[in-house]
Amino acid sequence: MRDVEGNGIYCGGHLDIDCFQRNPNDWYGEGDDMMLTDGEFWPPSLHGTGTKDRYHCAYCPTEESPRITASSCTAAARNGDGKEGIPYTVAKRSAV
Q1: 25/1 Cα distance (integer angstroms)
Q2: Which helix (H) or strand (E) segment is 56 a member of?
Q3: Cα gap 26→30, rounded to integer Å
Q4: Residue 36 sits in which domain range?
Q5: Tens-digit pLDDT string for the chain (96 aa)
Q6: Which residues partner with 34 through β-bridges?
Q7: Which of 29, 30, 70, 77 is spaced 20 to 30 A from 60 at the CA atom?
Q8: Alpha carbon of 59 to those of 1, 11, 53, 89: distances in Å?
């Protein structure tokens, strides 16, 4: 890991979901997104509202989509101004 200083932006993440038993009306990616950085202990300082919001599709899709994360990421890159990430204003050495 490299030590760096200055401003930066968290620019992405990746999530794979394996759902082996699925009910007809459930959503396969429910959960909270939590990140422990810089050796911190529980509870994490970065605690989001859930994977459904972080990785798009909070509206609960009614059709199958094999690449939900890919579709939401390309839409954000196409429609955003490049400042959608989490801003960092302090030096970080992160291990997630």
Answers
A1: 43
A2: none
A3: 9
A4: 1-21+30-96
A5: 567 677 766 666 666 666 677 676 666 656 677 777 777 888 888 777 766 665 555 555 555 555 444 433 333 333 344 444 555 454 444 444
A6: 47
A7: 77
A8: 37, 24, 9, 32
pTM: 0.35
pLDDT of residue 56: 55
- Report the greatest alpha carbon distance in the chain: 48
Distance, C-alpha 7 to centroid of its chain: 20
Alpha-carbon dihedral angle through residues 8, 86, 62, 30, given to the nearest 10 degrees: 110
- Cα torsion for 14, 57, 67, 55, to the nearest 10°? -10
- How many folded domains does the chain comprise? 1
